[in-house]
Amino acid sequence: MLGKSKLIIVFIAIFLITGVAPWVVSPYIVGVITMAFYFSVFVMSWDLLFGYSGEVNFGPTFQIGTGAYVTALLNLNTSLPIGICIIGGTVASIIAGLVLVAPALRLRGPYFGLITLVSVFLLGEMITIFAQYTGGEIGISIPAIITTNQITNFYLAWGFSAISAIAMTIIANSPLGLILQASAQDPQEAESLKFNITKYKILAFSVSALFSGLSGALLVIYLGTVSVSLVVSIAVVLQIIISAIIGGRRTIIGPVLGAFFIILLRQWLQPLEQLSYAVVSILGLIVLMLLPDGLISIFVGKR
Amino acid sequence: MNLFWQILIDGFIISSIYAVGVVGFSLVFGTAGVLNLSHGALLVVSAIFFWFFVSNFHIPLVLGMAGGIIISVIVSYLLFIIVINPIDKSKKIPQDEKEVFVLTATLLWSMIIEEILIYFFSSNPVVAPPFVKGVLKIFNMNITCNEILLSLSSIVILILLWLFINKTRTGKILLAASMSHDGLAISGIDLKKVYITLWGVYGILTGVSGALLASFLGASPSSAGPLTGLAFSVVVLGGLGNITGSIIAAFLIGYIQTMTAYLISPAYTPIPAYVILILILMFKPKGLFGRF
Amino acid sequence: MRYLKLLVFIVGLVFISTSAALAVRPINVAIIAEEGTLVGDAIVNGAKLAVKQINAKGGVDGKPIKLFIYDDHMKATDAVQAFQRAVYDHHVVAVIGSWISEIALSLEPWAARLHTIYITTGAASPKITEKVHKNYRRYKYIFQLKYNAIEMAKTVCNFIHDDLANYHYKTAYVASENAAWTQPLDEEYLKCLPKIGIKVVGHLRFSPNTTDFTPIFSKIKAKNPDILITGWAHTGLQETVQWHEEKLPFLIVGINAQASTSDFWKKSNGATEGIITQAEGSPAPITSKTIPFVKSYEKMYNITPAYGGYTTYDAMYILANAIKKAKTTNTNKLIKALEATNYVGVMGHIKFYPKSSPFAHGIVYKKGLATGVMLQWQHGKLETVWPSYAATAKVFIPPFVKK
C-alpha cells in the first residue's frame, strides 16, 4: 500500500505537534487535548475491531464502561493501590469484551449490531438498578488521583495514546490483522485455510477491550468522577463511530484525526452555545459525504 | 383473573403503538436496504409539529396531524436527497461499505434534527390532546377511550399497509424491489420512481405514527434516540426485511414489558425484554423471521 | 423571541465590553448551564438579569461583573472542559450553575483541584454537600444554593400538614422514578409522612424509561390512596396526562419537576390542572424582593422564571455582596465571606449551613428563613399555595378527586 509510509508520517506529525502543546497553548486547551487523547484510544480500539472483523460494533462503551466503573468501585470501596484498581478495571473490561465474542462468531451485520447495542442498554439499566453502589444516573466521585498537575496529566494521556496507537497499528498489520480481515471477507475460505477464526476473534476482542478499558479507567481517574453520560451512554458510542468514520476507517490513525476534529471543533464553536452541536454534526455530515475515505485522505490521498 | 385480562388488554395497546412506530423502519430496510438510524428523530418531528400546530393555531386535530405529516414527508425526502441517494450513487464508497456510511450519515442526520428541535422547542416533552375523551371501565381497569382509539387506528394502519404492499401495483413493485434491485431494472421499471414512492410512503407512515405517539406517549427531542433504539431492536428481532416479523416482534416486546411491570416490578420494565432478545438472537441468528 | 434574546445578549455584550474598556478590570464570573432546558435557560437568564442590575448600579465597588456563559449540553465532559476554560482562559472568580446532579458532582473535583468557587443553583443531590462536610479542606469551594432532595421531601410533608388538614386525608402512596436522586427523597417521604398522620399504604419505584404507566396506576389504584406522593423529573408528563384522562380519584402532590415550569400547561394541554409540586421560588410575595424580580424578569424574557432563575439571581447577588465584604476576590477570603452570608433574596432569607452540618454549604432550610414553595396548577395558572404568607391562592381539589 502506497499510503502506508505516509500514514506513519501523519502519525509522527500528530504526536510531535501535539507533544509541544503544553508549552504553546492555554492550559484549558491542554485539558481539552488530554481528554481527546483518551477518547481517541476509544475510537482506535473501535476501528481495530471494525476494520479487521468488518462488524459495526455498537457496544464499545460496554467495555469502556465496565473498565471505568470497576476501577472506580475498587478505588472507592477497597484500599488497594491505584495501579491495582486500574489493572482490575482493565481485566473486567477484557472479560466484557470476551462476552461479546460468542455473538460475534454467530451473528452478522445488524444482528451483531443489535446485540452490542443491547449490551450497552443492559449495562446502563444495571447501573440504575444498583444505584446505591454505582450512584445511578448521578454517578460517583473517585478519591484516586494520579496527579493534579495539568502538564503531567497531559503527557500521561499523550504517551498512553501514542503507545496504544503504535501497538494497534502493529497488530493491524501483523498476520493476525490480515487473517482477521480475510475471515471477515470470506469466513468459509479462512476456515478452509485451517485458520482458527475463534482464536483470532478472541484475540481481537481482547486487544480492543484492553486498550479501551484501560483508557476508560485512566479517563475517570483523570476526571475524578464516573457517570453514565461519561463512559456508558449511547451518545458516547455515536461519537466514537462518527469519529472513526469521518477520520478514516481501517487506518487506526485516521480515527485519532476524527476524534480531534469533533472535540476541538465543539470547543472552538462553543461561542455558538446551544447551536454548536448542530453545526458540528452538519460539518461532520459534509466531511462524510465529500471525503468518504475520511479526513486522513487529505494527507495520504485516496486509497 | 382480572390480572390476566389487564395484561392482555394493556399489553395489546402498548404493543400496537410499538408496532405502528417501528413498521416504517422495517419498510425502508426491506425495500431500500437502508438502516435509517434517524427513524426516531423523524417520528419526533411529526409528533412535535402535530402538537405545535394544534396548540398554537387551535386548529382541529386532523388538520394538525396533516400538518405534521407534511413536515414528516418533507424531512423524509430531504434525507433521501441529501444523504441516502448521494451515498447510493457514490463511486468513491465501496459497495460493501455503503451500509456503514448510511448508518453513520443517518446518525448525524438524527443528531442535527434533535439539536434543531431543542433549539426551537426546548427539550421538555409535549403531549398532543386526546382525539376522544372519556374512560371505559373493563375488568376493574380504567382505559381511556383515546388509548383504545389509538390502538385500533394502529391496527387499521398496519392492515392498510399490508394491503398496499400486497394488493396494489405500486406496492408489488416495492415488494419486488426488496427482493432484487437488478431484477427490477431488467423488467424496465424505473428505480428512481420506486424510491420516490418509497420515501413518500415512509414519510406519510412516520407522520401518522408520530402523531399517534404524540397522543399516547408524548414526545421530546431527546426521545429520538430511544425510539430509534426501539425500532432497531424490534425490527432486527423480527428479522430484517420482514414486516410481519417486525409486527410480531413488537407484540412480543410489548407484552414482555407489560408482564414485567405487572408481575415483577415497574422498576425493571426494560430488562427482561433485553435478555430475551439476546437469547432469541443467539439461537436464531437471523431473527425470528429473517430473510437476510 | 430568540432573536430578541440574541439582540439583548449582543447589546449586553457590547455594553459590558465597552464599559469594561472604559472602567477598571471587570470581575469575571462563569455560568455553566444546560441551555435548551427550561431550568438551564432560567439559570442563564437569572444571572444576566442580576448582572445587568448590579452593573447598572456601579458594579461591585466600581468594578463591573462580566459573565462567561457555557452550554454543557447536559454532558459532564463538556461541563468539565467549560470549567477549565473558565478558570484558565477567563480567570473567573466563581463558577455558577447546572441543575443536573451528575454534572454538579463531576465539577466538584475540579473546583477542588483548581481552587475555584463553584455554586450549584439547581442540583439537588445531598451528596454534593456531604463531601464538603466530610472533607472540608478539600471541598470547601463548593456551595449548593438549592434545597436538597431531603429538604424537598420535608417541604411536601409540611405542606400536607399545613394545608390539607381540612380534608382529613389519611393515606398516601409513594411512587417515584427509580433513580439515584429519588433515593434520599423517598426515604424522607417514608419517614415524614407517618409523623404528620398520613399512613403510607404503598411504595413503588418505576423505571425512568417507562412508556406505559397503566400497570403502575393499576397497582396504585388497588390500594385506593387519598394522595399520590411523587418524585418525578425524567418523567412526569405522561403520568399527569393519564391521571387527568382517567380521572383518578387521588390528589397528586410532590416533586413533578416538569410541571413546575410555566409552559407545562400548554405542553400537557391542560391536563396538569390540580397538580401540586414543590419549587424553589414563584411569582409570590416570598420576600419583598420576589415580585419585583419576577416583573423585571418577565419584562426582559417574556416568560416567568423556572426555579433556576430564582436561585441563580440570588447566587449572583450573594457572590457580589461577598466580594464587597471581603474587599478582594481572593478565594479563601471569599469563601469565608460566603459562609457568613445573611441575605434576604428572592427565594427567602439565605444562610449557609456550617461545615459541621451534614449539609455543609447548603442553604439553611427553616421556617422563617427559606423553605421553598408549593405550587398548584389552577385554571391554567401556576399558583403558590404554600407557605401561607406567600400564598396567592388556596388549595383547590379537582372535582374528580376525593374530598
Describe it for me?
The complex is a heterotrimer of chains A (303), B (292) and C (403). Chain A has 303 residues and is mainly α. Chain A has a single domain, classed as ABC transporter involved in vitamin B12 uptake, BtuC (Orthogonal Bundle). Chain A has helices spanning 3-19, 21-24, 27-53, 60-77, 82-99, 101-106, 109-129, 131-134, 150-173, 175-185, 187-192, 197-223, 228-231, 234-248, 253-268, 276-290, 296-300; strands at residues 140-141, 225-226. A two-stranded antiparallel sheet of chain A has the order 1-2. Chain A starts with a helix and ends with a helix. The model of chain A has no long low-confidence stretch (mean pLDDT 89). Chain B is an all-alpha fold. Chain B has a single domain (2-283), classed as ABC transporter involved in vitamin B12 uptake, BtuC (Orthogonal Bundle), CATH 1.10.3470. In chain B, 75% of the residues lie in helices and 3% in strands. Chain B has eleven helices and two strands; from the N terminus they run ααααββααααααα. In chain B, strands 1-2 form a two-stranded antiparallel ribbon. In chain B, α1 runs parallel beside α5, α2 (39-57) packs antiparallel against α3 and α5 (145-167) packs across α6. The longest helix of chain B has 31 residues, at 2-32. Chain B starts with a helix and ends in a 9-residue tail after the last helix. The mean pLDDT of chain B is 90. Chain C is an alpha/beta fold. Chain C has two domains: 2-147 and 285-350, Response regulator (Rossmann fold), CATH 3.40.50; 150-279 and 372-390, Response regulator (Rossmann fold), CATH 3.40.50.2300. Helices cover 43% and strands 18% of the residues of chain C. Chain C is built from 14 helices and 14 strands. In chain C, strands 7-6-8-9-10-13-14 form a seven-stranded mixed sheet, with helices on both faces. Chain C has a five-stranded parallel sheet with strand order 2-1-3-4-5, with helices on both faces. Chain C has a two-stranded antiparallel ribbon with strand order 11-12. In chain C, β13 and β14 form a beta hairpin. The longest helix of chain C has 21 residues, at 2-22. Chain C is globular and about 65 Å long. Chain C starts with a helix and ends in a 17-residue tail after the last strand. The mean pLDDT of chain C is 92. Chain A binds chain B through residues 50, 56, 102-103, 106-111, 113-115, 117-118, 121-122, 125, 129, 234-235, 238, 241-242, 245-246, 249, 274-275, 277-278, 281-282, 284-285, 288-289, 292-293, 302, and chain B through 35, 83, 86-87, 90, 92-93, 97, 99-101, 103-105, 107-109, 111-112, 115-116, 118-119, 225, 229, 232-233, 236-237, 240, 267-268, 270-271, 274-275, 277-278, 281-282, 285-287, 290, 292.
